[in-house]
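Hi C.,

You asked whether I'd gotten around to modeling the 205-residue construct. I have! Everything is below, sequence then structure, no commentary in between.
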Amino acid sequence: MRLFHLTICLLIALVAPASALDENLARQVLAEINLARTAPHTYGGFLREFRSRFRGKSYLLPGNTTRVKTVEGKAAVDEAIRFLSRQKPLPPLSWSDGLAAAAAELAVEQGRSGGTGHVGRQSRGMKERIERHGSWERQIAENIGYGPKSAREMVMQLIIDDGVKGRGHRKNTFARPFTTAGVACGPHPRFDTMCVIDFAGGFRD
Protein backbone atom coordinates (compact mmCIF):
# COMPACT_ATOMS: atom_id res chain seq x y z
CA MET A 1 0.00 0.00 0.00
CA ARG A 2 2.81 2.43 0.80
CA LEU A 3 4.53 1.70 -2.53
CA PHE A 4 1.24 2.25 -4.41
CA HIS A 5 0.72 5.57 -2.59
CA LEU A 6 4.29 6.68 -3.38
CA THR A 7 3.81 5.82 -7.06
CA ILE A 8 0.63 7.89 -7.23
CA CYS A 9 2.37 10.85 -5.58
CA LEU A 10 5.22 10.67 -8.08
CA LEU A 11 2.79 10.58 -10.99
CA ILE A 12 0.96 13.63 -9.63
CA ALA A 13 4.27 15.49 -9.23
CA LEU A 14 5.21 14.73 -12.82
CA VAL A 15 1.85 15.46 -14.42
CA ALA A 16 0.78 18.54 -12.45
CA PRO A 17 3.23 21.00 -14.07
CA ALA A 18 2.14 19.84 -17.54
CA SER A 19 -1.46 20.67 -16.67
CA ALA A 20 -0.32 24.26 -16.04
CA LEU A 21 0.70 24.64 -19.69
CA ASP A 22 -1.49 27.10 -21.57
CA GLU A 23 -2.59 25.36 -24.78
CA ASN A 24 -4.75 28.31 -25.78
CA LEU A 25 -1.76 30.68 -25.67
CA ALA A 26 0.34 28.12 -27.56
CA ARG A 27 -2.22 27.96 -30.38
CA GLN A 28 -2.42 31.76 -30.46
CA VAL A 29 1.38 32.01 -30.75
CA LEU A 30 1.40 29.77 -33.83
CA ALA A 31 -1.47 31.83 -35.30
CA GLU A 32 0.60 34.99 -34.76
CA ILE A 33 3.66 33.38 -36.36
CA ASN A 34 1.52 32.44 -39.34
CA LEU A 35 0.14 35.97 -39.59
CA ALA A 36 3.70 37.33 -39.62
CA ARG A 37 4.75 34.78 -42.27
CA THR A 38 1.74 35.28 -44.55
CA ALA A 39 1.31 39.06 -44.09
CA PRO A 40 4.71 40.52 -43.08
CA HIS A 41 3.75 44.06 -44.12
CA THR A 42 0.71 43.93 -41.85
CA TYR A 43 2.90 42.74 -39.01
CA GLY A 44 5.24 45.65 -39.64
CA GLY A 45 2.31 47.91 -38.71
CA PHE A 46 2.06 46.24 -35.31
CA LEU A 47 5.75 46.94 -34.75
CA ARG A 48 5.32 50.60 -35.72
CA GLU A 49 2.60 50.92 -33.07
CA PHE A 50 4.84 49.14 -30.56
CA ARG A 51 7.66 51.59 -31.34
CA SER A 52 5.52 54.46 -30.07
CA ARG A 53 5.67 52.99 -26.53
CA PHE A 54 9.43 53.65 -26.23
CA ARG A 55 11.09 56.27 -24.10
CA GLY A 56 14.83 55.94 -24.58
CA LYS A 57 15.67 52.24 -24.43
CA SER A 58 12.66 51.21 -22.37
CA TYR A 59 9.01 50.80 -23.31
CA LEU A 60 5.74 50.90 -21.44
CA LEU A 61 3.66 47.76 -21.09
CA PRO A 62 0.06 48.35 -22.22
CA GLY A 63 -2.42 48.93 -19.45
CA ASN A 64 0.05 49.66 -16.65
CA THR A 65 3.01 51.79 -15.63
CA THR A 66 5.66 49.06 -15.80
CA ARG A 67 8.59 49.89 -18.08
CA VAL A 68 10.69 47.20 -19.76
CA LYS A 69 14.37 47.87 -20.46
CA THR A 70 15.89 46.75 -23.76
CA VAL A 71 19.45 46.49 -25.05
CA GLU A 72 19.05 48.31 -28.38
CA GLY A 73 15.91 50.38 -27.92
CA LYS A 74 14.08 51.64 -31.01
CA ALA A 75 17.01 50.69 -33.26
CA ALA A 76 16.13 46.98 -33.09
CA VAL A 77 12.45 47.74 -33.74
CA ASP A 78 13.31 49.94 -36.73
CA GLU A 79 15.55 47.23 -38.15
CA ALA A 80 12.76 44.66 -37.75
CA ILE A 81 10.28 46.99 -39.49
CA ARG A 82 12.68 47.36 -42.43
CA PHE A 83 13.06 43.58 -42.57
CA LEU A 84 9.29 43.06 -42.66
CA SER A 85 8.86 45.71 -45.37
CA ARG A 86 11.16 43.63 -47.62
CA GLN A 87 9.97 40.18 -46.56
CA LYS A 88 7.84 38.28 -49.09
CA PRO A 89 4.85 36.29 -47.79
CA LEU A 90 5.53 32.68 -46.85
CA PRO A 91 3.19 29.71 -46.40
CA PRO A 92 1.72 29.21 -42.92
CA LEU A 93 3.04 26.47 -40.63
CA SER A 94 0.84 23.53 -39.72
CA TRP A 95 0.44 22.47 -36.08
CA SER A 96 2.37 19.36 -35.00
CA ASP A 97 1.34 17.53 -31.84
CA GLY A 98 4.73 15.78 -31.74
CA LEU A 99 6.71 19.01 -31.92
CA ALA A 100 4.39 20.55 -29.33
CA ALA A 101 5.10 17.60 -27.01
CA ALA A 102 8.85 18.11 -27.50
CA ALA A 103 8.48 21.82 -26.71
CA ALA A 104 6.37 20.97 -23.65
CA GLU A 105 9.17 18.87 -22.15
CA LEU A 106 11.38 21.95 -21.87
CA ALA A 107 8.55 24.30 -20.87
CA VAL A 108 7.51 21.99 -18.03
CA GLU A 109 11.08 21.54 -16.79
CA GLN A 110 11.92 25.25 -16.85
CA GLY A 111 8.54 26.03 -15.32
CA ARG A 112 9.72 24.05 -12.31
CA SER A 113 13.39 25.02 -12.23
CA GLY A 114 13.39 28.62 -13.45
CA GLY A 115 16.09 27.70 -15.95
CA THR A 116 16.56 29.26 -19.38
CA GLY A 117 18.12 28.20 -22.66
CA HIS A 118 17.69 25.33 -25.06
CA VAL A 119 19.13 22.47 -22.98
CA GLY A 120 17.28 21.08 -19.99
CA ARG A 121 18.94 18.96 -17.32
CA GLN A 122 16.25 16.29 -17.66
CA SER A 123 14.72 17.00 -21.07
CA ARG A 124 18.12 17.51 -22.73
CA GLY A 125 18.67 19.32 -26.03
CA MET A 126 16.28 20.23 -28.83
CA LYS A 127 17.23 17.40 -31.20
CA GLU A 128 16.99 14.74 -28.50
CA ARG A 129 13.61 16.03 -27.34
CA ILE A 130 12.18 16.23 -30.85
CA GLU A 131 13.38 12.75 -31.80
CA ARG A 132 11.65 11.25 -28.76
CA HIS A 133 8.35 12.23 -30.35
CA GLY A 134 8.86 11.35 -34.01
CA SER A 135 11.04 11.79 -37.09
CA TRP A 136 11.82 15.14 -38.69
CA GLU A 137 12.68 16.12 -42.26
CA ARG A 138 15.15 18.61 -43.76
CA GLN A 139 15.92 20.76 -40.72
CA ILE A 140 14.77 21.71 -37.22
CA ALA A 141 15.09 24.78 -35.03
CA GLU A 142 13.78 26.17 -31.76
CA ASN A 143 12.73 29.58 -30.47
CA ILE A 144 12.16 30.35 -26.78
CA GLY A 145 10.60 33.55 -25.54
CA TYR A 146 10.34 34.67 -21.91
CA GLY A 147 8.17 37.36 -20.37
CA PRO A 148 5.32 38.51 -22.65
CA LYS A 149 1.87 37.33 -21.60
CA SER A 150 0.11 37.79 -24.96
CA ALA A 151 0.79 35.89 -28.16
CA ARG A 152 1.36 39.05 -30.21
CA GLU A 153 3.86 40.49 -27.74
CA MET A 154 5.67 37.14 -27.58
CA VAL A 155 5.99 36.90 -31.37
CA MET A 156 6.95 40.57 -31.74
CA GLN A 157 9.69 40.03 -29.16
CA LEU A 158 11.08 37.11 -31.17
CA ILE A 159 10.89 39.01 -34.47
CA ILE A 160 12.59 42.12 -33.05
CA ASP A 161 15.18 39.89 -31.34
CA ASP A 162 16.58 42.74 -29.26
CA GLY A 163 20.17 42.06 -28.17
CA VAL A 164 20.43 38.76 -30.10
CA LYS A 165 23.37 38.67 -32.46
CA GLY A 166 22.38 37.39 -35.88
CA ARG A 167 18.63 37.64 -35.12
CA GLY A 168 18.35 33.86 -34.93
CA HIS A 169 14.77 33.84 -33.60
CA ARG A 170 13.64 36.03 -36.47
CA LYS A 171 15.43 33.86 -39.01
CA ASN A 172 13.71 30.75 -37.64
CA THR A 173 10.31 32.45 -37.76
CA PHE A 174 10.72 33.33 -41.44
CA ALA A 175 12.71 30.30 -42.63
CA ARG A 176 11.18 29.06 -45.88
CA PRO A 177 12.10 25.36 -45.38
CA PHE A 178 9.88 25.02 -42.30
CA THR A 179 6.40 23.61 -42.89
CA THR A 180 5.28 22.68 -39.39
CA ALA A 181 5.75 23.70 -35.76
CA GLY A 182 4.64 22.90 -32.25
CA VAL A 183 4.35 25.35 -29.36
CA ALA A 184 4.19 24.98 -25.58
CA CYS A 185 3.61 27.92 -23.24
CA GLY A 186 3.44 28.01 -19.48
CA PRO A 187 4.43 29.79 -16.29
CA HIS A 188 8.04 30.58 -15.47
CA PRO A 189 9.17 31.40 -11.91
CA ARG A 190 11.54 34.18 -13.00
CA PHE A 191 9.87 35.64 -16.07
CA ASP A 192 6.19 34.84 -15.41
CA THR A 193 5.55 33.35 -18.88
CA MET A 194 7.56 31.37 -21.42
CA CYS A 195 6.88 29.82 -24.83
CA VAL A 196 8.91 27.18 -26.65
CA ILE A 197 8.42 26.87 -30.42
CA ASP A 198 9.89 23.88 -32.26
CA PHE A 199 10.06 24.06 -36.07
CA ALA A 200 10.66 21.36 -38.68
CA GLY A 201 10.74 20.98 -42.45
CA GLY A 202 8.35 18.07 -41.93
CA PHE A 203 7.47 15.83 -39.01
CA ARG A 204 5.94 12.41 -38.44
CA ASP A 205 4.79 11.49 -34.94
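If it helps when you're writing up: Residues 2-19 form the longest helix (18 residues).

Thanks,
B.
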